[in-house]
Design goal:
Layout (H helix, E strand, L loop, with lengths): L5 E4 L5 E4 L3 E2 L13 H14 L3 E3 L8 H9 L8 E6 L1 E4 L2 E4 L3 H15 L6 E4 L8 H13 L6 E4 L3 H10 L4 E5 L11 H8 L2 E5 L31 H21 L3 H10 L14 H9 L7 H12 L10 H4 L5
Parallel strand pairs: 3-4, 4-5, 5-8, 8-9, 9-10, 10-11
Antiparallel strand pairs: 1-2, 6-7
Helix pairs in contact: 1-2, 2-3, 4-5, 7-8
């Protein structure tokens, strides 16, 4: 068993989590064909045996199948684990639709409770901000759900600083999710300082650049049908070729530290703030063990500064989202 350091998300409404959580989306959704349920249940339970207790899912992953997967896998460990899930996105005719109407969110919470097999959801996020529903109304809905004992903490995913402040003023946020890694540094500009000021935790998703920062995805990679990376600008052949410089940097550091590029990327993130909890995902036991090993990788202040300075000199090519997906982020 790996003894993972615990971190605290939020100060007004604090939640204790592992320094590294496990993002479960890819087991059922977004990266090609869903993986075998029996194999994924086994992987999740092996994660618990290794010391992992923090898991992330969402209603739309499947939809519904990823929550059911966690419900089955974590049934023997309900009192030992922390589960975060999300609502506010529906699948309509195969397309994702942002919908944060309060009545729908209440129904989503009830469905998630049943699928996860829990009495209360540890951390419930609004998956994306709905421009048709005021964030104050959403926050009041979450407040009522907390008061009713349906959810224990709440958060926002891919929200702007303005939205975060408005929501937090109504019902304190425990965490905000957004993409953050060595090739997605935008949160450093406004988001991280705002979260520090408000006492809100940060949960970076795609901390390994959707797999690119592991060094296992080459410029000639072909993505199977259903793998969303095939549509993203940053995963076009020319972009991956240009961005290889960042992977080379990680590999050089990894060689010096007797680690892997993935471990370096995760350890760099962990070193940025004490209230950051990355949630790398995987469907393989070997990768799970590798990722968890990042929690023990430490940098001196000089080493950390050198990695950051070297990364600063590398221009990342390609947007992280398509224009359609970008419209839903940062509202």
């Amino acid at each position: 068993m790996i003894i993972l350091q615990k971190r605290t998300l939020g100060t007004t409404s604090p939640l204790t989590a592992d320094a590294l959580g496990l993002g479960c989306m890819g087991m059922s959704f977004a990266y090609g064909q869903p993986k075998d349920e029996v194999e994924m249940i086994s992987l999740i339970q092996k994660a618990v045996a290794l010391g992992e207790t923090t898991f992330d899912t969402a209603e739309v992953y499947g939809p519904y199948t990823n929550e059911r997967l966690l419900g089955k896998a974590l049934k023997p460990y309900r009192n030992q684990v922390t589960i975060a899930t999300k609502g506010g996105i529906r699948l309509v005719d195969g397309k994702q639709v942002v919908d944060a109407n309060p009545a729908g969110l209440v129904q989503s919470v009830e469905g998630s409770l049943q699928r996860l097999g829990v009495d209360a959801i540890d951390l419930y996020y609004l998956h994306r901000v709905d421009p048709q529903v005021s964030i104050e109304e959403v926050a009041m809905t979450m407040q009522k759900l907390i008061q009713a004992g349906k959810i224990k903490h709440w958060g926002l995913s891919e929200a702007s600083v303005t939205t975060i402040k408005k929501a937090h003023a109504i019902q304190p946020l425990t965490a905000v999710e957004s993409e953050y890694s060595l090739w997605t540094r935008e949160p450093e500009q406004e988001l991280l300082p705002t979260l520090a000021d408000l006492g809100i935790g940060f949960v970076p998703f795609s901390p390994l650049g959707k797999g690119f920062l592991t060094g296992k995805i080459t410029r000639d990679a072909k993505f199977e049908a259903g793998d969303g990376r095939g549509k993203l600008p940053r995963f076009k052949t020319e972009a991956m070729a240009a961005n290889q410089r960042l992977v080379d940097l990680l590999q050089n550091v990894a060689t010096e530290k007797k680690a892997t590029p993935a471990q370096v990327a995760l350890a760099w993130l962990l070193a940025q703030r004490s209230w950051i909890v990355p949630i790398p995902g995987t469907t393989k036991l070997a990768r799970l063990k590798e990722n968890l090993g990042a929690a023990t990788l430490k940098f001196t202040a000089d080493e950390l500064a050198a990695i950051t300075a070297a990364a600063d000199k590398i221009k990342i090519v390609g947007n992280r989202y398509t224009p359609e997906l970008a419209k839903r982020a940062g509202l």
